[in-house]
């Protein structure tokens, strides 16, 4: 009987040892998964934190609207004074048709219309035909106060030089100002579904006419 009891105790100890080791492995494995999940959550949070914080405060001075991907600046094609003239990206020339100003419709507005200095009437940036579709063309038009001429500025991040870059969301379509296919040549700007992993929707706003 004593031998049997001794054997039983040894078996019980071995079983408890196995249980403890298995539990420890489970805890360590769970900890690893949790760290991975936390990292993923942090990445998502970092990408979207600015949007959750609300619209950014627009600059008060005249600025360039400069593409993150092409380093080209938005301007009016051919410096045209006409309604419907395309808004294209072009090398920096310091001309007035590359100068833009954000103006709030009312003092309490969280969005702005964006006027161009190239004409005496300061025409506004809008979406051709008030389109809500992907690929809608960006043009200038007399400011009418319509939704496709209103834009919400959102801070996206900063580059290695600590310069802030933004995205511009159209009030009418809820789509973002973009360079089609990330082009690095002169091309008309469009609107497209907003995404935080699309650098062709990111814009710097350096002061005009400084470099």
């Amino acid at each position: 009987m004593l031998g049997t009891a001794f054997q039983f105790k040894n078996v019980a100890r071995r079983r408890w040892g196995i249980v403890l080791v298995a539990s420890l492995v489970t805890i360590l494995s769970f900890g690893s998964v949790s760290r991975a999940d936390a990292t993923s959550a942090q990445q998502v949070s970092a990408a979207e934190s600015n949007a959750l914080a609300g619209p950014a405060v627009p600059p008060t001075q005249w600025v360039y609207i400069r593409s993150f991907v092409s380093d080209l600046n938005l301007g009016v094609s051919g410096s045209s004074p006409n309604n419907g003239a395309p808004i294209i990206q072009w090398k920096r020339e310091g001309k007035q048709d590359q100068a833009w100003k954000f103006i709030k419709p009312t003092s309490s507005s969280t969005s702005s219309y964006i006027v161009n200095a190239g004409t005496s009437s300061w025409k506004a940036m809008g979406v051709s035909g008030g389109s809500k579709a992907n690929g809608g063309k960006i043009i200038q038009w007399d400011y009418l106060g319509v939704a496709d001429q209103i834009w919400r500025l959102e801070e996206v991040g900063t580059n290695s030089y600590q310069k802030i870059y933004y995205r511009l969301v159209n009030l009418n379509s809820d789509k973002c100002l973009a360079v089609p296919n990330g082009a690095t040549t002169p091309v008309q700007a469009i609107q497209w579904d907003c995404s935080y992993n699309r650098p062709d929707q990111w814009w710097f706003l350096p002061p005009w006419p400084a470099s």
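Residues 2-53 form the longest helix (52 residues). The longest strand covers residues 150-158.
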